[in-house]
Design brief:
Shape: globular
Number of helices: 4
Order of helices and strands: EEHHEEEEEHH
Strand content: 5-15%
Number of strands: 7
């Protein structure tokens, strides 16, 4: 289980004021404690989609900080390391909703986007996550997760996101953003519920 963000199509975006990782538009890039400056730049560029402000690094970050909430297309990606099956977030899913996976343990599946429409089928001991709930189940791709392993998987995602915040802080320092860089880290933390404790039912 990995936190991932969707790569913008930069052909339809204004010029970026920082280097971004070259990647296929609409593919997914993992977010973790070892991200490079170009990967952090890609993440921050994803936050700017929909902003009308263009210009320098400082001007774009200032516009981001004026937003009440930051949004980021993406979510959690599941990979079966034995079969190679991969379940990715659907369209309109956001990384800001990643904690909804905790609710699976009380019987409430998260919304994972559409087109395709991933779905979590909740069993007694297992969760089966389908890539497309509208497809023929005999042919559709799925990943099985033991319910007992979900807290450990989510704790790993939590550690990756906390580590990623340190990458954003380092990126902002190298970009000489000053206090705006610290404010950006705090805004990302707040919008994506990163450093708050991850609490599971019954714990």
């Amino acid at each position: 289980m990995q936190a991932v963000v969707e790569v913008p199509n930069f052909d339809f975006e204004p010029p970026q004021p920082w280097p971004v990782l070259p990647a296929e538009p609409y593919s997914f890039v993992p977010i973790h404690r070892g991200c490079s400056d170009a990967e952090v730049g890609l993440f921050v560029s994803g936050l700017t989609r929909g902003l009308e402000t263009t210009g320098s690094r400082d001007e774009v970050v200032t516009a981001l900080l004026a937003e009440e909430t930051l949004l980021q297309p993406g979510g959690l990606r599941l990979t079966d390391t034995v079969t190679g099956a991969v379940i990715e977030p659907g369209c309109c899913a956001g990384l800001e909703e990643w904690r909804e996976w905790v609710d699976v343990l009380t019987g409430t599946p998260p919304w994972l986007g559409h087109g395709p429409t991933p779905e979590v089928e909740i069993g007694v001991d297992e969760l089966r996550v389908w890539q497309d709930s509208g497809a023929d189940r005999q042919a559709a791709q799925s990943v099985v997760v033991e319910r007992s392993s979900l807290p450990g998987l989510l704790n790993r995602v939590h550690r990756d996101l906390v580590g990623f915040l340190a990458c954003v802080q380092a990126w902002s320092e190298r970009g000489r953003l000053g206090s705006k860089g610290t404010d950006l880290v705090e805004a990302i933390d707040r919008s994506f519920h990163v450093t708050a404790p991850l609490i599971f039912p019954g714990s």
